[in-house]
Amino acid sequence: MNAENMTRKQFMKLPRKKWNDEIKCNTLIIIPHEISRFDALTYMLHKWLNRHIPTLFKEPEIYEISGMHDSGYRLISCVLCNDDEPFCITNGGDVLHIDGIGGFGYKWLENYHHVPSTVPVAGWTIDCLPQSGLFRLWCSEDILVGRSLSSQEIYRIKTMQDDKQ
């Protein structure tokens, strides 16, 4: 099914990417996780009760709210697509690092052997899908989705067409 016609629920039913897989694609759909209002209200109530009656109520943990990272920020999943055809989804972290942490690109230390003062230009673009209202991200080159840990690193890489030549 084409990503432009899919709903958030359809995206969330896609197969999960293994945390340690590095997968090439050409488009990502960014999905902020939904949180239960009941869970959020329960969390706020427990926090209030802990401030006023700490002997009876323990300090609540943010990770007790589904869809939240223990940093206090919402989780973000990415749907991997080729030519707007989704094929899997990441588990989600609280940060999306474009061109890796620091923005130096994929395997930057192996390529530059030091922290570079400049990196090649990449044309990153974001638009908003008509059906779901989610953000779609792509680049002038293909995208490599790295390991999914607490945060998610994505990189621009040589295009799939260049690999065939």
Round the mean pLDDT to the nearest integer and report it: 83
Low-confidence stretches: none
Number of domains: 1
Number of helical segments with 4 or more residues: 4
Largest sheet: 7 strands, mixed
β-strand amount: 25-35%
Distance between the termini: 29 Å
The shape, in one word, is globular
The count of β-strands is 7
Q: What series of H and E elements makes up the topology? A: HEHEEEHEEEH
Percent range of helical residues: 10-25%
Describe the structure.
The protein is of the alpha+beta class. 19% of the residues lie in helices and 31% in strands. A hairpin with a 6-residue loop joins strand 5 and strand 6. The protein is globular, with a radius of gyration of 19 Å.
